[in-house]
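Weekly structure sync, notes
Attendees: PL, DS, HV (note-taker this week)

Item 1: Alpha/beta fold hydrolase
DS walked through the input record. Source organism listed as Streptomyces chromofuscus. Sequence as pasted into the shared doc:
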Amino acid sequence: MLAKLSPRRAVRRHAVAGAVGLAMLGAALPTTAADDPQPDLTRFYRQKVAWKTCDGGPTSDDLQCGKVTVPLDYARPGAGTLELALARYRASGDKRGSLVLNFGGPGGPGVSELAHSGDDFMDLTDGYDVVSFDPRGVGRSSPVSCGDNPYGGTVITAGTDETLRDPGTVLRQLKKAAGECAKHSGPVLPHIGTVNTSRDLDVIRQALGDDKLNYLGFSYGTRLGAVYAAQFPDKVGRMALDGVDTLTESLTQQGMAGAQGQQTALEDFLDWCVKDVACPFGQDARTAREAVVRLIRSMDQDPVPTAFSGEFTGQDLVGALSQALYSRQMWPSLQHALASLVEDGDTSEVEAFATGGSALPGLGQGRQQRSPSADGALVDQDDVPLDNLPAALMAINCADDPDRPSARQITSNLGRLRAAYEEASPVFGPFRLTQVLLCYGRPKGTDFIREKVKNVDTAKMLLVGTRGDPATPYRWTTQTAKRLGPSAVVLDNKGDGHTGYASSKCVHSKVDAFLLYGTLPPNGSSCGSRSGEEAAP
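Item 1 (cont.): predicted structure, written out as tokens:
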């Protein structure tokens, strides 16, 4: 799940990730343990980044861009290469090296995120060049895509009566869609996933000239950081992980947790909204919740026409709500957007939250076609497919997950799962249940994360968990810390919203103190309170 560091940017960008944590239609990644004999990678580790002024796309005068080259397939480094896009803000103080950021997703492009969010990290330039990158399959780095319309114009939602009556038809649609994703993604798709991205990250570390990796990861970026710690324990420098992802739960379990967290966040929003006469759902919280469910169902049956994407469905609205509920600071904007939708039929403000990740790839959003890149060179920013973020999100999640339920298992379990998901959330349950289907028929993903990412022998790492996080529940922080072992130090953020760095001054200062000066808070110490430090707008 993409961390929302700046609410202002979330509305401004019109290209945000859906907080859906979906499974992926992409091909699986070969499982490679860190201690297996490896081919000669010397030429990749001898690179140095040639920084220059950024060309095109969102940028600032202070941002510099570069690239590194990595193997397409680490098992066969002579079989092709990929270029990865990098960007940095140079250190303004005494430089102790570089600090690499990953903003989450999976599928979030680091270069454009850093350009938009640079102000949030300027304190860190007191000691570091602050660097981010577009991972393989993401942004300008061989972006994956599923094309214009991989599902034939059908909204696939596992929670519908139609799906329960005829799951075979949906499974056939998913199998056909997987072929479309492969056709439009090029040679990178079989080699996408966190295990390979972690190896890319080590090549980046060396190209930056650092003996150890200093790293700040948000949401999915914590999964990447944990995998790096398992693969390259002696290369871990100062590592902070905010909004900690699970390393062990299945996609089905993750979907249930996400539905519950988002339902709680929605109810908190509606409790706040109904206190204002401008709330489009009235002044009673119970009836407001019922009205939201009715609105979603009616829009699934009769989508609202839009100038931007053709039509806007109820599931698109669910994706927009998922994104907007990441932060209480976005509540006023969400209220205004929903009022425009309900009262005027205007989807433009809601689309500002949803565009780029609210729906499955290609669903009614006018995606442009592109030819897969065979040479692994960076693509121009204007050539990044509009569906790249959701396509990459799903590709990476499937590559990271070894579970592949059969058609018979899906068919027999779908009714039970539907009931459980709807009990968790009548709004987000059907949307999140769809993830149970999305890896159907694909090769199994790697089991490296579940089996090998544990008991790491690294320098101390700071793990930040937020009690009211709707996307990465706090229990994942404590579970992951226990799994990683004594190296993990937990900071308990007693606040709300997805991740704590941008929303809590306390978290921000403690993370910066660790990254800049090596000062760790005591394990189990806390910031703020659920009703104190971070008040609702």
